[in-house]
């Protein structure tokens, strides 16, 4: 997966059918990878499995499922089901979680990095060996049946929405890569890529999620980006990367303009060390501009 889109969440009465419709349209325009966020009204690995099976031209990913309130055995089985359904085209994205998730599950949001380390350690063992005997401070993982099909290929890639130094270290050691969002090119190059690479045995995947839309209505799109992305400015992990980039508002990192402008910014992220880029918020100014953005992605996507 080198260039993709995060499918916009819709208010459709049947989000599965609508997601399949969107995915088919994206594939017809040349997009080769789509990602789904995790919400509380659907299961993102199942949605990715359905879309990936219905639209075989696409690779599919989830970004990102919080580990807080979940167990590695359940995530392992969900991910492998999606991997089998898509014929090896599924990519599992995880996140530490937040106080929003903590409140929803009634689980304390304490020592998140230690929890992440235990979760990834157990999950990696489940996926790699088909079993585990893990007894940690937060998790116990002792399956009584096999947790992976012997010889199944490829193994589910595991990525983490990590941007802080400690999370990047754990992800470098135990995951296949990271999924930074709202981390600009300077922050990506100087803080994220260098840190995760330092702790990884092999070159890690760095899948940068970037809000972007191709549009003639730059002012209108910027105003909507200010409104929609303001939430992240209050979240400490995002506030940190915004400050590192030297911007005040999350919307300042939204890539908005014509095809040439957006393509140039995509190149900046690749130059900063991203191995893959996913454009998000492509629906800021409506369906016509979203399709225009997807068409550009299709044109920029290498063939073969």
TrEMBL record:
GO terms for molecular function: oxidoreductase activity, acting on paired donors, with incorporation or reduction of molecular oxygen. Keywords: Oxidoreductase. It comes from Nocardia huaxiensis. InterPro entries: F420-G6PD/mer, Lucif-like_OxRdtase_MSMEG_4879, Luciferase-like_dom, Luciferase-like_sf. It is an enzyme of class 1 (oxidoreductase). It comes from the Bacteria. Its EC number is 1.-.-.-. This is TIGR03564 family F420-dependent LLM class oxidoreductase. Coiled coil: none annotated.
